[in-house]
Amino acid sequence: QPILVPILGDQLTRNLASLRGRTQDDTVILMMEVWDEATYVKHHKQKIALIFSAMRHFAAELREAGWTVDYIKLTDADNSGSFTGEVARAIGRYDPRAVHVVEASEWRVHQMQDEWPDKFVCDVEILPDDRFLCSHAEFEAWAEGRKHLTMEYFYREMRKKTGFLMRGDGKPVGGEWNLDKENRQPPKDSMDPPARPKFEPDEITREVIELVEGQFGNHFGSLEHFEWPVTRAQAEEAADAFFAERIEKFGPYQDAMVHGSDDLYHSMLSTSINLGLLDLLELCERAQQAYEEDNAPLNSVEGFIRQIIGWREYVRGFYWHFMPELESRNALNAQRALPQFYWTGETDMRCMADSIRSTRENAHAHHIQRLMVLGNFALLAGINPRDVQDWFLAVYADAYDWVELPNVVGMILYADGGKLATKPYAASGNYINKMSDYCKQCRYSVSKKTGEGACPFNPLYWHFMDRNRDQLESNHRIGRIYSTWDRMGEEKRREYLDSAENFLDSLQPASKGWARYT
Ligand code: FAD
Ligand code: DLZ
Ligand code: SF4
């Protein structure tokens, strides 16, 4: 009787807790393409193609290394369509003495796994996912008794724990923990970021692309530019290029936006990291090495390491700490439907149109587009959190509930009432103008505050502040905004509010069928 080891689609590493220490002759690995996972939201076509292709490549790699892999394809005749159904069928086939599986990264799938011990005739062991650097218990111990779960303090603990950029005396290299203030440079005309490596679809990927076009042709997004790494070797090549060519300027231009320039100096590694193709400690070691060898300044390297051992680990801990309530939080009582243009890209707002174009073409937009353009608009316009969650979960190739949800509910929408962010990331057109080249050729005028042709972010900003005054005025980081508002006088305030309302009234709500099967 073998041990059955199901490997989920975002667990694609040989260094998985369920494989470690196992021998090949008494192990059957099970990998499953299932309808339920492909359709719980209508994922971008590239996201499904990426996951299926990476799964198929990983299965081939495991077989080549001598493992027995039972791989269930989406269109296999008896495919039951769910993880639970497929594990049950595999138990029928192999009569294993136990199932060893690594805990799912998402609440939804973890709930399924929790039922397995009662459902199945054999033993079921659910193992911790030690690819994350901070265990659930460690996060809970850190969170215990804290009024605010401030990322910065979590991050400092992670620096001490991992030793990255630490001096022998326990102080941070360079004397400061966080160099974010050096990482806010606007784009320069002379910027010329080197292109990242693009990976031509091989036969496996081409077959998957055909499958996705056939089965999920009505999902959002284009498959024309499928260029993601789908194997560990390719992901490492992508990482090599980042550390050789882009990390130097990663820090300074982290918040910059340039029309038509989709990668800038970002690593573009999130899809590979989330699938399990890259190892977090190795990435951080390489970043640190770039600093030690004088290939990148401290602000770039610290910024990169902070995203990985700080933000990424923090949002994962935050997710498990607040689930399942997190997904229904709506502290600002935002009720508006998501506008249709999030799906079509048909809007005259040039910043939104470009961010949505990149999303449609690449299943990717970089952080500041997600946060300060797409997210900021959703916040200011009062889009209900469920619609925004569905959109962000569906459209990005790196999107999984555990990472998307805290970013949407906590970071962009302030729907958790300020647990993640100490104030809403609300900004008028001025911020976007400062950090991008979008506004110069926009149909709207960023310097016009109200009325016909005014940048919609301007009146929406004040509409947001005004309608949420009860909740926000007591926040010491934002409260003083209201004295500016009050000083404007009744007539000016009315102009802002009317302009915002006219704009909001003009928005066409999206049909629900874009995000979910109805
Ligand atoms: P880089 O800019 O090169 O950053 C390096 C790495 O740091 C990323 O690959 C990622 O692993 C990590 N990272 C950076 N910021 C965050 C963050 N806020 N949370 C978690 N990890 C972070 N990231 C996802 O992986 N999946 C998502 O579904 C996702 N949804 C998001 C939704 C919103 C509203 C926002 C504001 C951010 C979201 N992010 C998400 C975080 C971030 O935008 C992406 O990780 C990043 O854009 C990926 O591109 P990159 O690999 O070039 O990142
Ligand atoms: C996102 C996704 C999709 C689209 N399809 C599958 C699949 O068919 N099989 C699979 O194992 N995983 C898939 N995934 C990723 C899973 O949803 C992910 O592993 C879990 O959500 C983790 O909780
Ligand atoms: Fe966006 Fe306003 Fe600038 Fe147009 S003017 S690109 S809508 S910020």
TrEMBL record:
Q: Where is this region: Disordered?
A: 175-199
Q: Where is the composition biased (Basic and acidic residues)?
A: 178-199
Xref: InterPro entries: Crypto/Photolyase_FAD-like_sf (IPR036134), PhrB-like (IPR007357), Rossmann-like_a/b/a_fold (IPR014729), UV-DNA_repair_photolyase (IPR052551)
Secretion signal span: none
One of the Pfam families matching this protein, by short name: DPRP
Q: What is this protein called?
A: Cryptochrome/photolyase family protein
